[in-house]
Specification:
This protein starts with 9 loop residues before the first helix and ends in a 7-residue tail after the last helix. The chain is mainly α and 185 residues long. The protein has five helices and no strands.
């Protein structure tokens, strides 16, 4: 009698889904005009960096909203938020006018809140309890980490390495947000 087939592991399902999404993204990329993404006139790396920087800015806003709603979480969230702020700087589109192509400083790159002239986009309200807020923030980190992992398939070399590093950091943040501080492993 042949052995019973094993159910696929969660890891193999995620890898297959990531591959399918990556393939779909690579073959079906068009802008609103229907032109292939490569013909839009904006280099792939720049588009990917702009998207990653925008996603990171939204994540920073979630950290700020969570800290504002639950001030007692500020100490726990501060180092994670600082790492996300560093990711924003690393993902910024390099400015050719700066030495060595360094990223141009933005109006909000050093502050913790959006600039006064630019209203912050409305985001979902922060959950009412600290535990729920941490879980929501961890889910946001995890989703962004997974999206960045999928984006690796089409990223140019150096950007792919950066996205992999930032995605790994996001996965660690998700773990830290849902673990009990001070608990023995």
């Amino acid at each position: 009698m042949p052995p019973a087939p094993h159910a696929p592991s969660r890891r193999s399902l995620l890898a297959g889904a990531a591959g399918a999404v990556g393939a779909a993204l690579l073959t079906g990329c068009t802008d609103e005009s229907g032109a292939p993404a490569a013909e839009s006139g904006i280099p792939l790396e720049r588009r990917m960096r702009e998207t990653a920087a925008r996603d990171t800015e939204r994540l920073l806003e979630r950290y700020d909203a969570t800290t504002a709603a639950h001030p007692d979480l500020a100490g726990r969230l501060a180092p994670l938020r600082a790492a996300v702020a560093a990711h924003r700087v690393a993902l910024a589109v390099p400015d050719p006018g700066h030495p060595a192509g360094a990223a141009a400083p933005s109006a909000s790159s050093s502050g913790s809140a959006p600039s006064a002239g630019t209203p912050a986009p409305r985001s979902a309200p922060v959950p009412p309890t600290p535990a729920e807020a941490l879980t929501e923030l961890a889910d946001t980190e995890r989703s962004l980490s997974e999206a960045r992992t999928v984006a690796l398939a089409g990223a140019p070399g150096e950007l792919a390495r950066l996205l992999a590093s930032v995605a790994a950091c996001g996965a660690v943040h998700a773990y830290l947000l849902t673990s009990t501080p001070g608990a023995a492993s």
